[in-house]
Amino acid sequence: MAKTPQVDIMRSPLGRARGLGAAKAGAVHWWMQRLTSLALVPLTLWFLCAMVRMIGSTRDDVVYWMAGPLPIVLMIALVIATFHHLQAGMQVVIEDYVTRDWLRIGSILLVKALCILLALACIVSVLRLGL
Amino acid sequence: MRDVRDALMVARNSDDKLIRRPLSPHLQVYRWPISMMLSIGHRVTGVGLGIGALLLTWWLVAAAVSDDAFDAVQGFLATPIGLLLLFGWTLALFFHLFAGIRHLAWDAGYGFDKPWYDRSGWAVVIATALATVLLWIIGLAVW
Nearest CA to B30 among B20, B39, B22? Predict the structure, then answer.
């Protein structure tokens, strides 16, 4: 049983919270998560169809396929939406379960850095294949 | 109380004494309805799809680098572990896709009444199973 709490600052809870602004960045994070998920519905279905058709193909086939105007654009769109959605989702999961400040902030930054680097690696690869 | 976040957890009881608010019962005391399974499933598959994104990165980078690197990925994906990873990826992807569409419908304000809540949940499960099996039948037939 936790001991009886004491209020040792002469301010009401509302007074303490007021003026601090929206927690983090307001609705931007939530909205971007929805926006990327909306984009990922058609992009993912297209990607799955494309991958099934690529089964058993050689590297030359991949290069030939990626050189088309549609695949190169849609692949880059897919990569950007995927990694943005991934870091947004991972951030929420980490914020929910990791309580120690330094560990939470550290792991969120690490996930974001990884997502940016992986996305860049994907985009550079797509451009090298398709251009 | 020194932390703003504590403000919501402290209240006065009927004797005007400061108390810590009780926490609601947690996961282990509930009989798991479908909605709870799908909720946590959406998170688990979301994190799992991060591994799928690693796989996609490896595949794309290898294809861009050399024949040897590309053959290494394709070879790995054809092993039992590789196929299991691919199967898990498609399963997680379809689940997260369908459960995600359900979430988007909620965000738009639809599907909150109890019968629809359960029905859409089962629809996600059935659609995931059908889509995964269908994809693998087509995939293995092409292979």
Answer: B39
